[in-house]
Design goal:
Elements: H1 2-25, H2 29-56, H3 85-101, H4 103-121
């Protein structure tokens, strides 16, 4: 993680400097915005890596004397049979098409997208039906 947040921190600074230079040279507003947003994205990813590095401590991949076996073990939980990415992608696609076809489709797609995001994030949260309050 250390290399990641240093790399993305450097990229954020680089994009900020390039953005100012491009603005001073007389670049168009779209280019200035795109470079600025690229810097913001790099800063966001760098901040994520930095907070994870502070929370998790030194990872085996940051240890110069580390072995491949140090990374062995469970990596996390990955859903084996989730159908939610499909309606999520279709809703996002319909939302993009709605910007071209008509606002009515965008409104419907945003509603569908909200339902898909809620379903995707709460897929494995089962209510406790045995407890009686």
């Amino acid at each position: 993680m250390k290399a990641g947040y240093k790399l993305f921190g450097f990229l954020a600074i680089f994009y900020a400097v390039v953005d100012v230079i491009y603005w001073q040279v007389g670049g168009e507003p779209l280019g200035i915005t795109a470079i600025g947003l690229s810097g913001a994205l790099a800063l966001t990813i760098g901040f994520y890596f930095w907070t994870n590095d502070k929370r998790m401590g030194q990872l085996p991949s940051d240890n110069d004397d580390g072995e491949i076996a140090d990374l062995a073990g469970e990596l996390g939980f990955f859903s084996p049979h989730s159908w939610w990415p499909l309606p999520l992608a279709l809703s996002a696609c319909a939302m993009g098409l709605g910007l071209v076809i008509g606002w009515w489709l965008t409104v419907i797609a945003v509603g569908s997208l909200i339902v898909s995001i809620i379903g995707f994030t709460t897929e494995y949260e089962k209510p406790d039906l045995t407890s009686h309050h």
